Amino acid sequence: MRACFGVKTQLLISRVFSRPSTAxxxxxxxxxxxxxxxxGEEKPQHSMLRHLTTKIKATGPIPVAEYMREVLxxxxxxxxxxxxxxxxxxxxxTSPEISQIFGELLAVWAVSEWMAAGRPEQLQLVELGPxxxxxxxxxLRVFGQLRAVLGGASVSLHLVEVSRALSRLQAQSLTGxxxxxxxxxxxxxxxRGETGAGLPVSWYRRLEDVPAGFSIFLAHEFFxxxxxxKFQRTQKGWREVMVDIDPEKPDQLRFVxxxxxxxxxxxxxxxFKGHRLHDVLxxxxxxxxxxxxxxxxxxxxxxxxxxxxxxxxxxxxLKNMGIDSRMQVLLRSCGDASTRQQLIASYxxxxxxxxxxxxxxxxxxLHPRRLARPAPPAGLKLEKKPSPAPxxxxxxxxxxxx
Length: 402
Hints:
By secondary structure, the protein is of the alpha+beta class. The protein has 14 helices and 15 strands. The chain has a single domain (32-314), classed as Rossmann fold (3-Layer(aba) Sandwich).
């Protein structure tokens, strides 16, 4: 059975990747990726700085978590609410923006897990923090190529997005003119539409508002942007790092160590602006803030109710999913030298250990039954055989025919 499921996943990959798609859209890799300085400095976000200094003057230094929450998601001046931060001209670039192969492979993964779950009648694709909608668009395109596999399953897309500005970009990419904002504030979905293929798309501010049903959740570069508390070890023990006003420069902020002790571990905080590291306290609201994800903490918080897989390096996951085979097909069919260079450069960024290959990780949360050994068939048992092994999970396992 294990080999059989591996064959099924291989067949999915072969079906999608055996020939170049007529809708291929290659996203060029820019030399500014994560290294070179921006072309020009933007004006500081004075309104956000005023807001933060007023809050600190009233209540005292604030935790890093509160600072991140205000800077990123403040409904008036938050970075995610007011900025177009993605892509070569933004502050950072993500894997789906580099190459559509990334989304294609995740689509195959989603369908293989839907099949492993017994082909439910409903398939909800839920993405947390969907950026410009590039990943969702690539996944849905592959779903369209696998209509025969999905059969009569009811497929829908559900996007959890706090930024109205980004939701408009996502709607433009995914639904075009076939969508509209909700009329009432009480509706769970604040925007609805449908794709050109007729698949319903809904936008939510909270994960809790997504309707119940069999769902595949994607959270690409999502957990690293969640607000975190930062701690520093001192001679007196662990102390929380707070954000305060610099007394020598009232128009600037600084980190300070709280006098009271805490029991937690240190978390590294980074800022990205113009694809390079940026002082996280400079011009609040003008740069993205990220923190290294503590996967062991995610495991503990998930508890015993789910099965955890990984984390595994992005390079390992993509190679297990067949990125090399897809690249060979595309390069053989590509006659344009410039496009070939873009393909090779995109592949290098996604898989090179010195770039995204090792730094970025895949982590899976599955229902415990997914990794349980299948129940033996009922009936007369003439001989005692070992229980069949659990079905392998694509991407986290190298699927072969052996």
